[in-house]
Design goal:
single chain, about 550 residues, 9-stranded antiparallel beta sheet, 8-stranded antiparallel beta sheet, 2 helices, 39 strands, about 5% helix, globular
Length: about 550
């Protein structure tokens, strides 16, 4: 039976006990930065209409701000490391990945795949803010319902460092830098609270309950906190089909009144869900936009943009197209960009000595077992027959609606028992790659890698196709259809010359269940089943669309 989005919203509470679906977010600089730009400001560029989703990659729980002429956004990454990517845009439509707010998930051994695993934990809905008084970016989020962490940086691309740990777990936090420079946090699930932080942001001064969600609404969470025209607003989601907002004219601690922003609104992605869990941001010219996400599995949750207007008494209204969130709108009128953003697709030859921010590891890597130096070297870091336990698996988001990843792999230094290749990775996975056994290397396609709802391995994979290979170099390719609404096919192929590719194995069905939260990813891996010491080298990765 097809589960309704309302039913899914209720089921999310059961699935994660204390918390339902993760929330998107947005946060703005203080009031001074929110005022309408001067008529004497820079000339505005008006581009053609944009198309939703503005990013067809998995960036959930978006929190969006503007600092000067640049927009920034943050997103959830769960168990992937580094965490909390910072995206950058000059027009709210074209985005690039600038860096990560959480350099390493140093929250316990499970995030190192050391005796335990952190799947579907880690970086949940969190908050990104900018504080003009000290020209500093702030990231705030809770981990494992235990405590909250604050990281800071003077540039969005980093380096980021931990400022403090706070004992109160600010669930789905929204950080507000008030016009008087005071730091406030709105947070909670159904019961919404506001905390005040010390001037240095290191400690909690006070916290107070400010709102209880009416029973007829159900669950509200995903707080984003704003001060706009002297009014305080807490933007909240009803997962996974609604958005509400609270308003106070009496200060950050309320009292607050509530209004529905949207409910069961038809979204811009065929087969996808209701745009929700987003945040508000104002352009230099004074126009307002709502950046939400759309549940669109098997690919994940995709950011979508819509213009906002305000009622005379100060409530936001989403501008619809034929009663729905538009598949396209006129592009925001903003100053011409200082440069073009880096595309999220294309070729990576692993030039230089560091990974580009498009890459995230499955859990924290063993830093002694990988390197970048005009090519990516992956040394086996784990002895296991279970890819879900293997460290140093490097992941890349899939570009929708369909895309292909192609890697050039040197496997000449593999050792007996090693497994290396290219996977479609989620709680049900498959891969194409090399098995080295008894002095012989074979090319295989493996499926049936599975986890249960507690993210324990239930299947380590079954070899379903194989081919003979010679030499030490091969090209591997995975194709992914991530259009939402149904399970979709993933396919695998290989080449010995980089030009002619041969299909290997049957199509793999990528499931569209939401409970793993993160969407499917392409993944590069190399792990041992007998002993460490084997090496593979990736000299080229290309993400392409039709």
């Amino acid at each position: 039976m097809q589960m309704s989005w309302t039913h899914q919203a209720q089921s999310r509470r059961r699935a994660l006990a204390a918390a339902t679906g993760l929330v998107a977010g947005a946060l703005l600089p203080p009031t001074a930065a929110l005022s309408t730009a001067s008529a004497q400001g820079p000339a505005l560029a008006t581009a053609a209409d944009f198309t939703n989703p503005v990013i067809w990659q998995d960036f959930a729980d978006i929190d969006v701000i503007r600092v000067g002429d640049t927009f920034y956004a943050s997103a959830s990454t769960m168990h992937y490391s580094p965490g909390a990517p910072v995206l950058r845009s000059y027009d709210l439509v074209n985005w690039e990945i600038a860096g990560h707010s959480v350099p390493v998930l140093d929250f316990g051994a499970k995030y190192d795949l050391n005796g335990a695993r952190g799947y579907v934990r880690g970086i949940w809905a969190s908050s990104l803010a900018y504080r003009p008084s000290n020209r500093t970016f702030y990231w705030l989020g809770q981990i494992d319902f235990a405590r909250s962490y604050v990281y800071t940086a003077t540039a969005a691309e980093g380096p980021w460092s931990r400022l403090t740990t706070i004992s109160t777990p600010y669930f789905d936090a929204g950080l507000l830098v008030d016009s008087d420079d005071t730091l406030y946090v709105a947070y909670g699930n159904t019961t919404i609270n506001v905390a005040q932080l010390s001037p240095d942001g290191r400690n909690q001064v006070r916290t107070q309950q400010v709102f209880t969600t009416p029973s007829n609404v159900g669950t509200l969470e995903g707080a984003r906190f704003y001060k706009i025209n002297g009014q305080y607003y807490i933007f909240l989601t009803r997962p996974a089909n609604g958005q509400y907002i609270l308003k106070s004219s009496s200060g950050p601690f309320g009292p607050y009144t509530m209004r529905q922003v949207l409910l069961d609104l038809r979204g811009p992605i065929p087969g996808g869900g209701v745009p929700h869990q987003g945040g508000l941001v104002q352009t230099q010219s004074g126009a307002w936009y709502y950046l939400a996400f759309v549940d669109a599995y098997p690919g994940g949750r995709m950011p979508a943009l819509a213009p906002i207007t305000w009622t005379s008494d100060g409530w936001p209204v989403v501008q619809l197209v034929n009663g729905a969130w538009g598949t396209s709108y006129p592009s925001p009128a903003v100053p011409p960009p200082p440069r073009q953003v880096t595309p999220m697709t294309g070729v990576d030859t692993f030039d230089g000595t560091t990974l580009k921010p498009r890459w995230e590891w499955n859990h924290n890597p063993d830093s002694t077992k990988w390197s970048v130096n005009n090519g990516l070297t992956l040394r086996t870091a784990t002895v296991t027959n279970d890819l879900y336990w293997a460290r140093n698996t490097l992941t890349h988001r899939i570009q929708g609606p369909t895309s292909t990843a192609t890697v050039q792999l040197d496997h000449s230094a593999m050792r007996d028992g090693d497994r290396a290749g290219l996977a479609l990775l989620r709680d049900s996975s498959a891969w194409i790659g090399l098995k080295r056994d008894g002095g012989t290397t074979r090319l295989v396609m493996v499926n049936g890698l599975t986890m249960d709802g507690n993210w324990n391995t239930t299947g380590t994979g079954t070899e379903v196709a194989s081919a003979h290979v010679s030499g030490g170099r091969i090209w591997l390719r995975a194709g992914a259809d991530i259009r939402p609404g149904a399970a979709r096919p993933g396919t695998f192929s290989y080449s010995t010359d980089g030009t002619t590719f041969t299909r290997l194995g049957p199509a793999f069905s990528m499931g569209n269940d939401w409970r793993f939260f993160m969407g499917y990813r392409f993944a590069l891996f190399n792990h041992a089943t007998q002993a460490l010491g084997g090496v593979v080298r990736v000299t080229r990765f290309e993400l392409s669309t039709p």
